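> forwarded from #structure-qc
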């Protein structure tokens, strides 16, 4: 007999959004040149190649987030040890809500995510840059 899912992804995103800071896209765009803010792009490489990214954003595939944040992980990335504000984003704000909650639960602070994700960013006229696809 198949498993009965008792907690939907929609419920998980709603719970994450209730627990983290969500930035309206205009507020996120206003932070674009702040040297104390790191935008973290969680999308997979194909999405970056197809859509581009926020200029200067750090790419962290969603599947590596916990390992790259944890300073004791062999995969730790120094950027997550910096005294910065981390603003996560994905395509629509679902993965970034979950990622922001995870980062917050791990002790990374301050963190937030962009309401509506990269799609909202582009629709609001936020600057983007193209990424070359890797072979």
């Amino acid at each position: 007999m198949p498993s009965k899912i008792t907690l939907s992804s929609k419920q998980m995103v709603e719970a994450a959004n209730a627990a983290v800071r969500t930035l309206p896209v205009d507020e996120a765009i206003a932070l674009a040149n702040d040297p104390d803010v790191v935008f973290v792009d969680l999308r997979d490489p194909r999405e970056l190649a197809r859509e581009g990214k926020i200029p200067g954003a750090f790419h962290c595939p969603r599947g590596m987030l916990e390992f790259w944040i944890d300073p004791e992980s062999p995969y730790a990335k120094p950027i997550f040890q910096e005294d910065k504000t981390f603003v996560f984003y994905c395509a629509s704000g679902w993965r970034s809500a979950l990622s922001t909650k995870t980062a917050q639960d791990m002790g990374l602070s301050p963190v937030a995510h962009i309401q509506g994700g990269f799609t909202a960013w582009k629709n609001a006229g936020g600057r983007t840059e193209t990424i070359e696809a890797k072979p």
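QC bot note: Residues 36 and 82 are 9 Å apart (CA to CA). The radius of gyration is 15 Å.
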